[in-house]
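B., you asked whether I could sanity-check this one before it goes into the benchmark set. Here's the sequence:
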Amino acid sequence: MTERVITVTERARNQALQVRAEEPDADSLALFLEAEESGLEFSYDLYFDDRTNARDGDAVQQEGDLTIVVPADSVDRVRGAVLDLSRNLLNPGWVVDNPNSPSPAVGQGGISPDDLTGTVEERIQQVLNMVINPAIAAHGGRADLHRVEEGIAYLQLSGGCQGCGLAKVTLSQGIEVAIKDAIPEITGVEDVTDHASGENPYFEGAKK
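And here's what the prediction gave me:
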C-alpha cells in the first residue's frame, strides 16, 4: 500500500541514507518504523530491512532514494508524525514528533454546561473530577485547578503527567477542549506545571 503516513525531514533522510550505505545490499533496504505503547507515550523502533518484507496493510512511502515502511499496526499510531534528527548535541539520535498519544481520550463524551453548578472555579473542578481525572488516572496522572484569570484556567499536572513529554498534547487536545466545551466563560487553558522536576524524564519534541 502506498500511503504518506509520516513526514521525513531532509536531514533525517540524508542521515538514513548515510547509515544505509554502510549496510550490505544497501539499495535493497528500507527504513522500517514501528511504534509501541510505552506508558503515556509511544516508543519507537527504527531499523533497516529488505523492502520486500513489507506486508499487506503496511504503509510504504518513498522519500527520494529512501523507502519508508510503517507496519500496519503502527500506521494509526504515527499518522501525521515527523521523523527528524535531534538538535540536542548531548543527546543525538532520531526524533519522532508525534501528535498521537496512547493515553485514553481525555474528556471523551464531554459534559453539558447544564450538568454543572457554582462559580467558574467550582465548575472547572467538577469537569476535572468527573471527566478529566478519571481518564488520565489510568496512567497515574492528575490535573488540579491552580487559578482562573481573565478567562484562562491555569492547571497543575501531577503524577504520571508531570514530566511527561506528551503532557502538552493531552492538555491541548483533551483537557482544554473538555473544559472550554463545558464552561463557555473559559477561553483557554494553560499548564503551570514544573515538568523538569517530575519523576518522568521530560522529552522535548522536535522544534518547529
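One thing to flag: Confidence is low (pLDDT under 50) at residues 104-108, 160-170, 197-208. Otherwise nothing jumped out at me.
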